[in-house]
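Q: Got a minute? One more chain.
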Amino acid sequence: MIFEQIATGGCQSYLIGCADTCSAALIDPEVRQIDRYQALANRDGLRIKFVIDTHTHADHFSATRQLGEVFNAPVVMHRESHAPFADMRLDDGDMLAIGNLRLQALHTPGHTRDSMCLMVEDRVFTGDTLLIGATGRTDLPTGNPEQLYDSLFNKLLKLDPKTLVYPAHDYKGRTHTTIAGEIATNPRLQQNDRAAFVDLMQHLNLSAPTHLTEALRTNMTGGKTVVQLLSEASSVVPFMSLAELKSRIAARANDFVVLDVREKDAFAAGHVPGARHLPRGQLELRVNDEFPDPTMRIVVYCEFGKISTLAAATLRQLGFLRAAALDGGMKAWRDGGFPVEPATN
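A: Always. Here it is, folded:
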């Protein structure tokens, strides 16, 4: 079996493949590693047949939808998942054929309603159901401590004790464990009484994951993250440096317009000399009146350089093909000691 574990911070994703047929699958891929997954598949001459999420992730951004398009492979989740982009939905006991490998789904709700573990040969990919020295939490949407108890004690922990356990997360640099090791040392599994386990899970008092709302939104619907929107915008927008803009203003160049897309109060507090003001929220509605010449060169800026990147991309979509964004925004302009002009009445 071809096997590769890819760590992204505390997130763990996996590439498994059949050496005889060069068929492979990706499990719990993370959006920041898309290029790496492609490189690994190319390196080993693999065809990715399935892209799988063990559950709807709430603490990072899944790459299944994007990779499904890249590899022309179905996105696989449990049938309880509400993700509209899932092409194949598995039931408990279903198997995926990956060349000569057989990957079997075990429905293990509790962390989420759609959680499943995946068995292949001597190992199980447990998602967030069973972690190293811990279990998945049950206080997030669709979590249920009683279901998690059943998934652990009545299913997962009954596997061969030698079974290797590969979870979707570990923040201490560990790669895997075994069923026997977790039964012996995992503090949460020492509470093998149902009521005691449920009480333990209900009183963990864990803080909410970073990006919880955004992660659930994108992973449940296939929508884009803010980082994705910015990345896509920056790939179609050129930038102008602070020094370049300063020199052009000093030379009194009249072949471009500087556009401030911040709100009125921010503009009034100080702006790039000679800048025109058009808030980002009004851009599409007022752009035709403000800029009747689509061939005009427009340098857009905001406070930190992010909203202006999106605004410049929008202008280009509207036909202003010489729109660019200031690299760094007004804060960088101010911090760099460049001239600031107050608003005039």
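A: The radius of gyration is 26 Å.
Q: Perfect, thanks.
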